[in-house]
Amino acid sequence: MAQRQSKSFVSNVLSSSQTKTKAEDNNEPSISRNTRNFMMAVSGGMETKTELSVSPDRCRIWEHHNRFYKLLDANNCADLISSFKTQGQTTACIVRKVHGKADIDFEIICGARRYWTAVFLGININIEVYNLTDHQAFLVSDAENKDRQDISDYERAIEYQDALGRYYDSKQETMAADVGMSTGQLSKYLALARLDKTIVSAFSDLRWLKVHHGQALRSKLQGPLKAKLLENAKAIKSIPDDEKPKDGAGVVKFLMSSTANRQSARDVEILKYQTKKNHPMLSAKVFDSGRVNIDIMADSGAGNTEIIAAVRELLTKRHK
Hints:
It contains 13 helices and nine strands. The protein is an alpha+beta fold. It has a six-stranded mixed sheet. A three-stranded antiparallel sheet has the order 7-8-9, covered by helices on one side.
């Protein structure tokens, strides 16, 4: 474990006269105004250690962290991987000490992507250690991520739902004031977290799911279209990957379509045809809706006459 002398996070907060309200597009963002304001308010109750450089093997992610850590990969951390290689880690992770664990010394409160990147590259990670209660850790984590565009609405919604009961005795007004948002806006996040899990499962990437999507879907789920939405949410998993929606707006459009007529696997008949020499020639998926998908094997050796005959036979069966 190496250490170096540097201005502590709190010192940076107190001495900085200029703040950034939005995360930069690359590298790790500067500490946001939200974080600076909070840290100034509570810094008197925290002991800041010297910045350390440690093996990520000695760290773990805080169990209440607001990231879906398992969704991090080389694609959505590509910006950090690149900047770590060219500039190093320019912003330390905020951590607190772990006691009673022989193999773990620290847990990551802020900086899950930085931590993931260090693990991926096999390098040490820079950290700043604070004495934080769980409640303080939540507020610091929320404030540090609030101005970033790479944390999703749904990740934040799940965190807020957990925090409401854990720290605020389910009092929304108290929590809203603490996190610096209106009660109405907090209610929208909480409603998103409570969205029917069948609907949530229709989003192949949970980070696509936004607050405004939740509002639109909840209004329909409370009306006569609920059964149709739930049916479509189940059907979306069975459609071919190249036909599936590519973003959150596409998923919502599919779910809310009253004409969506996608079949599950049990509603599809698979037909296969071979050449006279018993080589695979043609396969077809016949849907109950009447739609037919035909795949012709290019290397079957079959001539046009043989292929056309198979297609005619298929169409004859379809209309019986």
